[in-house]
């Protein structure tokens, strides 16, 4: 459909702006006595013919002329010259078109602003998702390091336990030696008094060693229990980080889908 627009003010400009987006419509020319009117400037940008005189309208190639000035003299001139060649939409019809077009433009502008906000929000969300994903990966690394550390600690506890058992055996054997030494000292009578003192000190040392070994063993048992708790918390942390990572991947997928739709 070929169309001419008479009047390049705000109304004619909005009509031109709207119709230029429709593939089935070709705006052949826009006319206004003011070549600095906004509609003329838009026509120049779009590569559409423009003129300051209605005489330059070739009605034989047109289907419709839209008279958008609302000036009676201009409307009468257009009717007189072109009503026999094509259909003419007068200022009343043009006003209706302009009203619909303005609302259409307002709606499009609102949609464009909303799309801009969605795009900005999508960018921010994607950046945050990336930070979350990076933090989750770091949490995985920390978790793995903690697991490695607790495993190493458990190995040292096992080795320490073996050493404590060995110390206990030595302490028990030393106690037996001390008792035997006391028995022999008693048999020796007054000649065994000095040896008896040494035997008693050996027994005291053996008792102290045994007590220290028990205390160390109690500490190691407590440490082992704490490490089990740490392992349990690490498992929980690992599960939470996996849930967090899965959620961030789902959000990222939805945001990408939304962004692709807004780009269409």
UniProtKB/TrEMBL annotation:
Give the signal peptide, or none: none
Any idea which UniProt keywords this protein has? Coiled coil, Transducer
Q: What is this protein called?
A: Chemotaxis sensory transducer
Alphabetical GO biological process terms: chemotaxis; signal transduction
Any one GO MF term held by the record is: transmembrane signaling receptor activity
Q: Which residues form the Methyl-accepting transducer domain?
A: 101-264
Record-stated family: Belongs to the methyl-accepting chemotaxis (MCP) protein family.
Q: Which residues form a coiled coil?
A: 213-240
Its taxonomic placement starts with: Bacteria, Bacillati, Bacillota, Tissierellia, Tissierellales
Q: Which GO terms describe its cellular component?
A: membrane
The cross-references to InterPro entries, in alphabetical order and at most eight, read:
Chemotax_Me-accpt_rcpt (IPR004090), MCPsignal_dom (IPR004089), NAD(P)-bd_dom_sf (IPR036291)
